[in-house]
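Person: I have long wanted to understand how a fold can be written as tokens. Underneath my words sits a plain record pairing an amino acid chain with its backbone structure tokens. Those tokens are not coordinates but codes from a learned vocabulary of shapes. I should like you to check that the lines agree and flag anything odd. The protein I mean follows directly.
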Amino acid sequence: MPADAVLSGTSVLIVGAGLAGLVAARDLAAMGATVSVVDARDRVGGRVWTQREGFVDGQHAEAGADLIDEDHHAVRSLAESLGLKLAHVLRAGFSMARPDAQGQIRLLPPSDTSGWSRLEAHLRELSQQYAWADRRWNSPTAEYIARRSVSEWLDDIGADAELRATAVSLRGFFVADPDELSLLALVDQFARDGDPSSGRMYRIEGGNDRLALRLAADLGDRVRLNTELLAVTQRAGTVRASLRNSKTRGQMQTDYIVLALPATVLRRIPITPALPAHQHDAIASLRYGRVTRTLLQFTTRFWRSTRRVRAFGSPLSIGAVWEGNEEQRGKAGILSLMAGGSASDETMAIVQRDGIEGLVRSLDWLSSGEASLLASHQVRWETDPWARGGYAVFDPGFAPAQREWLALPNGRIVFAGEHTSLRWQGYMNGAVESGHRAAQDLRATHLMDR
């Protein structure tokens, strides 16, 4: 049998039409499988969501997953294979906006990386211990590091105000506050990749959602939207899925199922027989970070002025701020605000008290001058019923040895999603890699069962 037909005659249901599910479906179809993709949303893409409506000059910006890093090879290769181009953005990297002793917000020059370098220096011994353990999350070393929160660690080392502010500014990266984030997550980041704000960054020209739309277009009518998974049962070499479309319920029998859903949604779905205890606990205990994305279109790109930097990390209530569409033409421009952790709550409190104009006034430190707000869009991901958070966060209550269970198949049930990625959790790259991995896991399972 030709390699591309190894799954000929095999049916697969993929639940979730985000990048992970769509990539798995594409790979499985190429292997000869008969695939069906369902998603409870009325659109594909999941947490990749490009906003176009309401913005002038045909501009757009990302309300969900935004930046693609230089070493995100899986998503970059996929985009290239689909004929999509990448735009190099935020070329000067991130600067830092931080209140001084008098409460005035100051912009640190791009060359001032003292906060990052000091954080990395303080983590050096723990990073070495973690490296000696081969960076394995199921090692005693990882378990020991994971027990403390970043906040507790800062207390232990007697961190000063600058170091604490740097840690708080990471809410725009980890979408969690220092007291919510396991120290292991921070050690893992710096041990593998260093400063998360460094390196070349890209977006897909025309919008990141073009990736999902192209994948879905190639799958055609094999993608069904507005269809919710209610329950899964596997027995006697088959899988039965209970589905609801509008007010209609039905059953679908399939040979395999790929669950490409966030853990926050997955843990609400009854699976019979029950998953192994470790796997159940891993899915049940995995937290997702709070995050509010705000897109503000102004008449001018006032944040540029004489600055080269167009992106700012911060410990402020509005979170991190960067230019959301510098690759697009037009005098108008869009600022993208990413408020993670408690900054998500603080951002919404500002809006509830002062409206969207309250957020605009919170940007006075960028010298808005005569610029006027043209349009805005805001998404609070923790209230989205099909996400229930921004992306996976490892807190001190999550047992690190259970991480590998998030991706392990169970019989004819295979799992995908950014939360299952060991290196790229939280990224589009992690979602894409997990889709490829899920397809290969299913193929290998099928070959071993023949």
